[in-house]
Amino acid sequence: PTRRSSRSISIDRETGSLLQLSSSSTGVILKTPPETAGLVDLAYPLESFTPMRLASRFSRAEVAQEKNQVVITWRALGPSRSNVTLPDGKIFAQVTIWAADDGRSVIMTCRVENKSTVPVPQVLFPDLWGLKPFAGTEETHLRLARGVEQPFKQDRGWKVYSPAGYYGENALRWLDFGSLEGGLSVFQKKWGSADFPELVTHRSEQDPLSLRLAWEHKQTVEPGHTWESGEFWFTPHPGGWAKGIEVYRRYVAQVNPPRPLPTRVRDGL
């Protein structure tokens, strides 16, 4: 539990993956067993097996808990296949989770260091497995800047929300998952940067009442280079999305404050 609220996050101490996320406003938002838990997932294509993945769920983690902070370290992310020869070197990853000073939010960051000899063309972070329809399949919505989806009513399989301009659904680095009774708002603190991630969702035939939601970063991490996610802010909230977006709105006011109109423009209008 965090210091000033009943928000809680459960981490698998063996793999470092996210097992449960809940709050008093919503109840359980995310819950999944260790074998289907996620947090970090990388593409690691090889000549012998191009769909190779490296992910927290295949790995052994070091989980260090301090006051209001958890640091999860993977010295070498594990592969999705054990019968394939890997190139020299390893992929190091570290996720830090801490309570924000606003008393409402939890912040996550990720760092990936490519200490191997091949590039990493894609990073999924945060990679959330096991989101639940806690307001019912009809009323649990995925709200983007310019669109609302019913993820538990859509066809099963993958859906991609590409970064878009003003008229696209995924026009901001913000979303809200929930209903008018309560939900979870998430945004990335990278105002104005060019590395806008895609959003991807997935529901399987085996477990259609669990949703996978991930932010897909397509910046290639070359050998010897490091990738940083920036801060992802998670804000559970009572009531509808307008309550959840309050933290993001304050952030926007800081990085893009309103400016007075020039006199010629004001008078012209």
Largest pleated sheet: 10 strands, antiparallel
The share of residues in helices is under 10%
In angstroms, what separates the terminal alpha carbons? 52 Å
Give the amount of beta strand, in percent: 35-45%
Q: Radius of gyration over alpha carbons?
A: 19 Å
Principal-axis shape equals globular
Oligomeric organization of the protein chains = single chain
DSSP strand count: 20
Q: Could you report the average pLDDT, rounded to the nearest whole number? A: 94
Q: How many individual helices?
A: 3
Structural class call reads mainly beta
Residue windows where pLDDT falls under 50 for at least 5 positions: 1-5
Order of helices and strands: EEEEEEEEEEEEEEEEEEEEHHH
Written overview of the protein:
By secondary structure, the chain is mainly beta. 7% of the residues lie in helices and 41% in strands. It contains 3 helices and 20 strands. It has helices at residues 241-244, 246-255, 263-268, and strands at 8-11, 18-23, 27-31, 41-43, 53-55, 62-66, 69-74, 78-79, 91-99, 106-114, 122-131, 141-144, 147-149, 157-161, 174-178, 182-189, 198-203, 211-217, 226-228, 231-238. Strands 6, 7, 9, 10, 12, 13, 15, 16, 19 and 20 form a 10-stranded antiparallel β-sheet that branches. It has a 7-stranded antiparallel β-sheet with strand order 8-5-4-11-18-17-14, with no helix packed on it. Strands 1-2-3 form a 3-stranded antiparallel β-sheet, with no helix packed on it. β9 and β10 (106-114) form a beta hairpin. The longest helix is centred in the C-terminal third of the chain and has 10 residues, at 246-255. The chain is globular, with a radius of gyration of 19 Å. The relative contact order is 0.16. The model is unreliable at 1-5 (pLDDT under 50).
